[in-house]
Amino acid sequence: MRLVGGSWKTNSIVVKLMTAFVLVILPLYGSSLVITQYSSEQMQTEVENAHDSKLHFYHNHLQFELERMSGLVNEFSFDEPMSTLSTRAPIMSRYEITSSLNDIHKKLSQIMVTSPYISDVVYYVPALHKRVSAVDGIRSVEDDEWKDLLATMGNLNGELSASMDDLYFLKSNPYNMNHEEPPNFILGIRLSADELKKRLQQLSETGGSDITLSFGDKHEVVISSSEQAVSTGLLQMLPTESQDALQVMRYQSDHHLYYSLYDADHSFTLTSSIAEEVLQAPLERYKLWLWMLTVMSMVIIIIFSLSVYKSIHKPLSALVKGFRMAEQGQPDIRIPHSRRDEFGYLYSRFNHMIERLHLLIEENYVARIRTSEAELKHLQSQIQPHFLYNSLFSIKQMAEVENVELIQEFTDYLGQYFRYMSRDSHAEVSLGEEVDHAMVYAAIQKIRFGSRVQLLIEDMNLVYRSITIPRVIVQPIVENVFEHAIAKRSQGGILKLSYQTAEGRLSIMIEDDGDQLTDEMLAELDQSFGEPAQRQEDEEITGLINVNQRLRIKFGAEYGLAARRSELGGLCIVVNVPWKGELPHAADADRR
To answer: Are 517 and 574 in contact (CB under 8 A)?
Structure first.
């Protein structure tokens, strides 16, 4: 297996593609038969599910309409004009009775238009021998009419009643088991058999099935979408063990399939019938198309395989051969061709790539060295003293007050500062020299700002002084403290310098107590230290960015500057440089 797996992995793409096609063709004949059988069963299931969904849809629709009509009957049976007319009639004039009947007629008309399944709404007042109909209006009736209607109430074992092949929702007030005694009124909604049949016909248009709607446990009233309704005898053979669960029952008889759904709440049954030949017709067509598709697929796969072999295998092999020769370092590789397709473009680009590759390999190393040197000199040249004019102005002020000793001290510091800055022959200095230079700058600034500036300078351990760093690294950070944290304040100002070692590095922390630094400014500054060098429009951080880039060029990306909030409340700039030494023991430090 290992040899087979290894040989398969080393084969070309074309060989794998052809093998995959062969593996598809071989089981195609057997799998097509299995797919056909499975698809036939699946389609049979889909047809059954479609009939289930159709019956459930119409059941939900019909149930909603019946419940709405039942609610209307119950609601209007408590309507005050209807329920009290018979009791108020003896004290009412003929005009008042007629007016009340007209009002009731309007309400019945309003009830009728609420559903397309309502063909009429009737209201009987036995005490007045009157009948109000939404369709026929108001007329006098004999007692036999309302007695016959009242006798049918509930004869379908539910809210529906059947009277003279018509379906009613009936409500009498008060309800009395003795139908010979006249009630105050009878309110009934007559269902439209024509509308029910029309909806059944619309539902049966798709699928080639006939749908029958029957009411009552014994299917007393039957409405069908066609003239050939399911016989009552066949409907009475329906199983009843799962009827209460609103499940669709399936059974077969006389070369027909029947799907039946029974609603116990409203005592009606929906039955859909479809001939077996109608059901099998799509399956037979599906089998024929499947066999045709199988044969066509085989032919297409064979033709496609030959085309892939000719149009991809040969040009791809030539390209792979050229890359292998390039890996061996042969400089005179060239793929001759006359193609104008995608492979022609790849060949021409490959030849051009080989011509440029050997030139770029040599130029790349030279360019990287020159770029690093140029970037370092550029960054060094950007650091200039910014306080020359301020220093000269300070000397002028001291001369005006004839403070000769302070002028002497100030000019001595200033001379040391410019002597260090103008020493171009040394690109790198020791950390001790750099910190001493920064302290000279701090002393000059302290003379300028006077006693309101406080310097908290930690003594440097002697072992740190020999660390070599780029020149003018610490002084720009100290300058940033005076320019942006101390000079903008009317009083107070602290500059703190301390050292800390951890994990093979020395951290020089320069802090201030400035009150102008926001969290957004701090986050932006710290983020700029970790990004590649870019042109900064903010002059306040340009010097810090230059220092950071010089350190990263010298020591690597893991070193440089970092920004955080100082314990004094202002900014803390951390200068990270490599240092893998160890601190001397306390006794050795004391002797030094």
So the answer is: no
